[in-house]
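Predict the 3D structure for this chain.
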Amino acid sequence: VQLVESGGGLVQAGGSLRLSCAASGLTFSNYVVGWFRQAPGKEREFVAQIIWGGGNIYYADSVKGRFTISGDNSKNTVYLQMNSLKPEDTAVYYCAAKAVRGYSRTYTYTGPDAYDYWGQGTQVTVSS
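Done. Predicted structure below.
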């Protein structure tokens, strides 16, 4: 299983970026996919999750209304569209995946320990 993030970079405050998380070795439709971020000296924090088929999308309050998570089943890729970026959004962004089925598809998974697979991360830097 491999998750590969891309799309990070340097952007001015108020700008936008779209991150991608491409998977090999698993099919996202059977997984919850989460985005997390980690700033220097801080713990890894939940950003957003998506579970296909059940409309189970959930955001951290800090990004609600600015970030949008989506997926393309045909490409086995999950995206994080980030708008109205702020300097405090600066962090390494990671995608993660965990197999789910049945009722577990209705849960929210906001803790990093809940996930089994992780990408290597992509740096997002927002300048003021």
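The radius of gyration is 14 Å.
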